[in-house]
Amino acid sequence: MQNPLPGKDPRPRSLAARLERAAGDMNAFLLVLAIGLATLDLTCLWAFKLQDALPAMTRTSANPTAINSNGAINKPAQAKPAPKPNPTAAGSGS
After folding, report:
1. Among 74, 54, 50, which residue's Cα sits nearest to residue 64?
2. In this structure, what DSSP letter does residue 77 have?
3. Tens digits of per-residue pLDDT, 2-50?
4. Overall pTM > 0.90
């Protein structure tokens, strides 16, 4: 059976031809990678600029005491302690 394309040999003849073909395939991948990294870079730049433009977040402290708008101090209600178990009532089943 004859080769359908006589001018195109499906096997590369030399190392240089193989490298040329691999470089051609690699260029498309590198182009896609470069576009993705540029998009990521611009997204981060936009996010940092947006962060600088937003007002600063209010910080909350771990202290449970708060001051309301008229200056009075609000303290949280104290929770009642859990009742202690009665040791004599727990084991009287026998």
Report:
1. 74
2. P
3. 656 666 656 647 888 888 888 888 888 899 999 999 999 999 999 999 8
4. no
Beta-carbon count within 10 A of 12 CB:
13
- Residue 20: per-residue pLDDT: 87
Structure tokens at 41: 């870079």
- Cβ 47 vs Cβ 54: under 8 Å: no
Per-residue H/E/C for 6-46: CCCCCCCCCHHHHHHHHHHHHHHHHHHHHHHHHHHHHHHHH
Report the candidate in 64, 92, 62, 61 with the shortest Cα–Cα distance to residue 79.
64
Q: By C-alpha distance, which of 66, 86, 62, 84 is closest to 74?
A: 66
Per DSSP, 7 falls in state T
| Amino acid present at 40 | L
Strand-pairing partners, residue 67, are 73
- C-alpha span between 33 and 42 (Å, rounded): 14
